């Protein structure tokens, strides 16, 4: 295959908010370094052939990324430009000596085929060390020592390596020529000199991925961090069992079992008496404890597995590497030491390394070093040259740090450390900590503690009452010591079980299950949740600040209109058909001379960073959507043969990358006649201000221009506004010829006198024309915006487009309506806080905004109490995404920085997916409230029923035994959490306003249902327990005979009915709690929730099974069909009773609620003050924080 020219390595975008295209298939590419020759940059291939800088082959780079806004950057790091003293005085041994505690990194198991160890390569950083860099022979020494190639990268055929390269061979061999120079072509590659790969097959096919780079993995490891030790199921069970209540129950169960066994085996029973089964209760409690522990730990185990799966998907991404001379996309986990990786603006750097070559590379290393300024990188060979010449200064920095971000420029770098050996990997390993609790979990934990204190108080009071009764009857108690001990133990068990029922340990479980379920389902609906708390927060979002390009629109740009000069207008839109000056695109282009066509073609193709490639196996232009639209126009109407072919004939002198401040980009080309031509394209209104002349005759074979008059400027301004009103993005195209470059009298760049300062020459240009590009709305966006507005969520559009274009799009998608306000970023940022507060309620569009404007908007909205969601795709959106309550980044078009700063990634870049996230967020909050409403009802009923029945009975026994209460506890804690947490959201969930941050966890409507259902359940159970014998006509006359015969008494049957009715009331009430509003249809979409149906089937089946075979273990007896009917029918009245409760006016409840609060709040507060408060912070501290806290203690 013939060697192709290198791809473009300068990223440009007309609009900084533009998205980047998706991945492309592996293609051929090579990297060169560029040098000047006769006033022009003339790169050369490794074979010495002259090529142009912008030449591109049929394949190309993976994508283009948005540049950061220069207004956000504070400039290069200001370091003194002094000689770097100490490089020559430090010996190799000293420069590469192990630091204390890192000796293991310098040792290698077996033979090391490389010249260096992982420890030696780590010496480049922490702190950055030019001495260590010099000691390894610079980037060329690394190339030889790591058996790589700076141009071709690693070989895809490499498995194991034969032989070994010594340290001396790597660092002392004669330096090869510079990249891209003739000397490079005459010297063999590092792979030829040192590498012999064993592929086990033909060299035409790359080695299997699992077998590639075995030696490299062995010596330097791969780019993954060890999986965080997932807890085993047994450890989770042990942690679940550490609950103090379960330990108390265990003690009680052991004592009960011991006494039961003693009574069964150690005591003589009268002949003919039924066998003693007192030990069954102890066994039943043990079984119940095992079930509670098992269910809880299995839920935790499942949750951990789900989140590990989600995190694996979150952390995996693709990067662009060069292997065997071809640009390929590989998983970030497959990066090896010795790989050559591409760097582009917006990329999160995946591994440490040394900068090879590129253009104007600047990185943000604040996350790794704390250095807030951007760090300009110097190519490795240039650094080595200055070190050898004795002119090296401390400003030289060839080091690429993992975890840092590329802000500007492009290039390639050689990977030197990966995974746990990289600087980012070391930080990540040091900072590993448990996931923080979400705000809802913290709030619920506090509520659970309060309920537990109240339940504990009730249990203590019950124990005191029953113990006093026990002591009072003790003188008349003729039972054995074992029987008396058993009676006391029964009292203790009932009190402890009451605490178990009162403690709502299912609340945190409900949140966990709801979040786990929601995040899994959201992933299927194109929302990847990175930060768990964002899921629940999104449900209460009050405003969304959305990007336009790629989120509201399709990000598929097409040239649909244009004006070349002042007289040649064309349009593909029907509304222009009546305009005599406007014709179809083919008709207008047919009037162009060859010179005009070539000028327009070169302005588009040469002054561009887009290129040809493949997306999903289909030919496509890869780059920003504006540039790909222009290239498509050039191909379809200007006769462009191919991007690579067109660029191969151009001799590039200077590149002016896109700058988001000046909204344009440019390139200087040396023409065959020796003339230097500057092409510029960018935002039309800005470029129009720089033009003084325009092309006057498009049919003329040669330059033909006239002065741009006031009337001409007005005509072009009106044209720009006309395009903007139709939602078209307007792009201006300018050019200017010079006899030499840099022009006489022009300012030059500080670091290169052969490069002119663009701002100094950017004036008195000739206008080629203005084109309008359309980016249509995504399907469903208007409906999604309407849904948000109906849900009480304000949608604002924040865009870099001008006011007219922004308004047209906002009107089309329904964001801007009558009474709304549109502002420009520069005006908005100048407002005082008071003025801003007056504008914000009506502000709907912020046009011509910078990332700083977006950040100011988000900050002020949050200060006003709004819950803010923000979308962003560019590197410069990072601050706003991080500041927002919920940051949405684009999964397809978003840069790595944007994804890192966001909490949720939209996998399809679609605004409609935000609406789905809002629905699921509300579903999570609703699920927790449903469960809370259900559990508090059971809590109140079970505690009062147990207390009253135990206190009123002669022997101190409760109508609900310990084992029965444990079954109820299992129902209301685990099963109900599973059932109520899995309801999927319906469209109706958006028909209400967001819940304010200050709102109580339990609404007044919820209290109405809780108290109403508790009253109903207590009335039913008290009536059955105290009056059931009379109502049902049961007699106690034959109790003694029945007991002697071992048969059930009517009272035993009634107690079984009370237990059965109580459980069935909970089952029916679970259906009531599927709604939190006052609507009646509690069965809505129940057929779609298979979890709910299955769990209720288990609960019903379990209850039936217990009644039929529970026997002595559950202290129940068999009941007949009539008794079953009474239980189920009476319990089913919970459904119509709920309708009655919902009919009670909320105003009536609100009126009397404050009186109840005034009566009951003082004792609750007093009890809370007496109980020790648990530190929520301590519960969720990282290991590092806990360690620091312990160090402070004396």
Automatic annotation (TrEMBL):
Residues 1-74, 178-208, 1171-1194 are annotated as: Disordered. The chain crosses the membrane at residues 245-262, 282-301, 451-471, 491-518, 936-954, 1007-1034, 1091-1110, 1122-1144. One of its GO terms (cellular component) is vacuolar membrane. Keywords: ATP-binding, Calcium, Calcium transport, Ion transport, Magnesium, Membrane, Metal-binding, Nucleotide-binding, Translocase, Transmembrane, Transmembrane helix, Transport, Vacuole. CDD domains: P-type_ATPase_Ca_PMCA-like. GO terms for molecular function: ATP binding; ATP hydrolysis activity; metal ion binding; P-type calcium transporter activity. This magnesium-dependent enzyme catalyzes the hydrolysis of ATP coupled with the transport of calcium. Transports the calcium to the vacuole and participates in the control of the cytosolic free calcium. Catalyzes the hydrolysis of ATP coupled with the transport of calcium. This is Calcium-transporting ATPase. It comes from Tuber magnatum (white Piedmont truffle).
């Amino acid at each position: 295959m013939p060697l192709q020219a290198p791809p473009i390595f300068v990223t440009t975008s007309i609009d900084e908010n533009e998205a980047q295209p998706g991945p492309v298939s592996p293609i051929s590419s090579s990297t060169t370094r560029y040098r000047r020759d006769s006033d022009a940059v003339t790169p050369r291939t490794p074979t010495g052939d002259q090529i142009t800088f912008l030449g591109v082959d049929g394949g190309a780079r993976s994508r283009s990324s948005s540049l950061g806004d220069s207004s956000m950057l504070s400039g290069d790091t200001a370091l003194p430009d002094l000689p770097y003293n100490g490089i020559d005085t430090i010996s190799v041994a000293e420069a590469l000596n192990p630091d204390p505690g890192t000796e293991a990194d310098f040792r290698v198991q077996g033979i090391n085929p490389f010249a260096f160890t992982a420890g030696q390569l780590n010496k480049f950083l922490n702190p950055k060390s030019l001495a260590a860099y010099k000691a390894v022979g610079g980037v060329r020494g690394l190339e030889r020592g790591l058996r790589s190639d700076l141009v071709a990268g690693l070989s895809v055929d490499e498995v194991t390596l034969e032989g070994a390269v010594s340290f001396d061979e790597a660092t002392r061999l004669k330096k090869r020529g510079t990249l891209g120079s003739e000397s490079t072509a005459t010297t063999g590659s590092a792979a030829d000199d040192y590498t012999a790969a064993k592929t086990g097959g033909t060299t035409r096919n790359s080695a299997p991925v699992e077998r590639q780079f075995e030696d490299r993995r062995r010596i330097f490891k791969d780019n993954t961090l060890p999986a965080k030790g997932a807890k085993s199921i047994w450890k989770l069970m042990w942690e679940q069992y550490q609950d103090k209540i379960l330990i108390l129950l265990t003690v009680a169960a052991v004592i009960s079992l011991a006494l039961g066994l003693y009574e069964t085996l150690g005591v003589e029973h009268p002949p003919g008496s039924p066998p003693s089964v007192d030990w069954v209760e102890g066994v039943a409690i043990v079984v119940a404890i095992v079930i509670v522990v098992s269910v809880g730990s299995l839920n935790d185990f499942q949750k951990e597995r789900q989140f590990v799966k989600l995190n694996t998907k979150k952390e995996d991404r693709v990067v662009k590497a060069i292997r065997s001379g071809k640009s390929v996309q590989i998983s970030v986990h497959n990066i090896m030491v010795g790989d050559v990786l591409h760097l582009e603006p917006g990329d999160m750097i995946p591994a440490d390394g040394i900068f090879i070559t590129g253009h104007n590379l600047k990185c943000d290393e604040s996350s790794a070093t704390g250095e807030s300024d951007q760090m300009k990188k110097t190519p490795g060979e240039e650094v080595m040259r200055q070190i050898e010449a004795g002119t090296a200064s401390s400003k030289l920095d060839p080091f690429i740090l993992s975890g840092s971000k590329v802000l500007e420029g492009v290039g390639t770098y050689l990977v030197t450390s990966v995974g746990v050996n990289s600087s980012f990997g070391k930080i990540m390993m040091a900072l590993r900590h448990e996931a923080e609790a979400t705000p809802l979990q913290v709030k619920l934990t506090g509520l659970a503690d309060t309920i537990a204190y109240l339940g504990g108080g009730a249990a203590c009071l019950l124990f005191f009452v029953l113990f006093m009764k026990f002591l009072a009857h003790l003188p008349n108690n003729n039972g054995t010591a074992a029987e008396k001990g058993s009676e006391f133990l029964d009292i203790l068990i009932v009190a402890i079980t009451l605490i178990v029922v009162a403690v709502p340990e299912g609340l945190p479980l409900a949140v966990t299950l709801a979040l786990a379920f929601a995040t899994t389902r959201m992933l299927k609906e194109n929302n990847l949740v990175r930060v768990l708390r964002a899921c629940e927060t999104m449900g209460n979002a009050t405003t969304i600040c959305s990007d336009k390009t790629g989120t509201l629109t399709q990000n598929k740009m097409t040239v649909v209109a244009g004006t070349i000069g002042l007289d040649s207008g064309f349009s593909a839109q029907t509304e222009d058909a009546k305009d005599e000056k406007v014709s179809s695109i083919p008709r207008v282009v047919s009037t162009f001379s060859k010179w005009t066509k070539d000028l327009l073609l070169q302005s588009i193709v040469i002054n561009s960073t887009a290129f040809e490639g493949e997306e999903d196996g289909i030919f496509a232009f890869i780059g920003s959507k504006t540039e790909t639209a222009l290239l498509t126009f050039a191909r379809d109407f200007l006769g462009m043969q191919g991007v690579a072919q067109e660029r191969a004939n151009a001799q590039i002198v200077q590149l002016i990358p896109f700058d988001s401040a000046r909204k344009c980009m440019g390139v200087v080309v040396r023409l065959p006649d020796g003339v230097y031509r500057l092409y510029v394209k960018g935002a039309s209104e800005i470029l129009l201000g720089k033009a003084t002349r325009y092309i006057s005759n498009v049919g003329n074979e040669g330059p033909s221009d006239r002065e741009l008059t006031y009337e001409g400027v007005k005509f072009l301004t009106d044209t720009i506004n006309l395009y903007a009103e139709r939602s078209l993005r307007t792009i201006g195209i300018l050019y200017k010829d010079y006899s030499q470059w840099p022009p006489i009298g022009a300012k030059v760049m500080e670091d290169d006198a052969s490069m002119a300062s663009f701002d100094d020459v950017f004036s008195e240009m000739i206008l080629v024309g203005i084109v309008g590009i359309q980016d249509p709305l995504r399907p469903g966006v208007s409906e999604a915006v309407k849904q948000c507005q109906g849900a009480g969520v304000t949608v604002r559009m924040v865009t870099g487009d001008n006011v007219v274009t922004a308004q047209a799009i906002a009107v089309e998608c329904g964001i801007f309506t009558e009474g709304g306000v549109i502002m420009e970023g520069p005006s908005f940022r100048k407002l005082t806080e008071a003025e801003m507060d007056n504008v914000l309620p009506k502000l709907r569009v912020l046009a011509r905004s910078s990332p700083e404007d977006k950040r100011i908007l988000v900050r002020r909205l949050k200060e006003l109490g709004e819950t803010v969601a923000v979308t962003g795709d560019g590197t410069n959106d990072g601050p706003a995404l991080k500041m927002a309550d919920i940051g949405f980044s684009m999964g397809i078009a978003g840069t790595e920085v944007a994804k890192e700063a966001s909490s949720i990634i939209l996998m399809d870049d679609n605004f409609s997916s935000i609406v789905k996230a809002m629905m699921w967020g509300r579903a999570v909050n609703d699920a927790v409230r449903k469960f809370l409403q259900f559990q508090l009802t059971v809590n109140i009923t079970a505690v009062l029923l147990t207390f009253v029945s135990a206190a009123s009975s002669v022997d101190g026994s409760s109508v609900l035994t310990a084992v029965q209460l444990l079954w109820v506890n299992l129902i209301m804690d685990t099963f109900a959490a599973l059932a109520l947490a899995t309801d999927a959201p319906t469209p109706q969930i958006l028909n209400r306003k967001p819940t304010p941050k200050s709102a109580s966890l339990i609404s007044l409507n919820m209290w109405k249902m809780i108290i109403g259902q508790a009253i109903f359940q207590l009335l039913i159970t008290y009536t059955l327990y105290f009056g059931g014998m009379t109502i049902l006509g049961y007699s106690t006359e034959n109790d003694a005979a029945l007991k002697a015969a071992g048969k059930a008494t009517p009272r035993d049957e009634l107690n079984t009915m009370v237990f059965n009715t109580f459980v069935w009331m909970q089952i029916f009430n679970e259906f009531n709690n599927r709604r939190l509003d006052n609507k009646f249809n509690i069965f809505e979409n129940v057929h779609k929730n298979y979890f709910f149906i299955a769990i209720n089937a288990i609960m019903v089946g379990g209850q039936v099974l217990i009644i039929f075979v529970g026997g002595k273990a559950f202290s129940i007896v068999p009941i007949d069909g009539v008794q079953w009917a009474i239980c189920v029918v009476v319990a089913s009245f919970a459904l119509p009773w709920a309708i009655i409760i919902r009919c009670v006016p909320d105003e009536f409840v609100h009126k009397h609620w404050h009186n109840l609060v005034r009566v009951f709040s003082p004792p609750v507060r007093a009890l809370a003050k007496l109980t020790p408060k648990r530190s929520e912070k301590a519960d969720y501290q990282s290991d590092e924080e806990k360690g620091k806290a312990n160090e402070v203690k004396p």
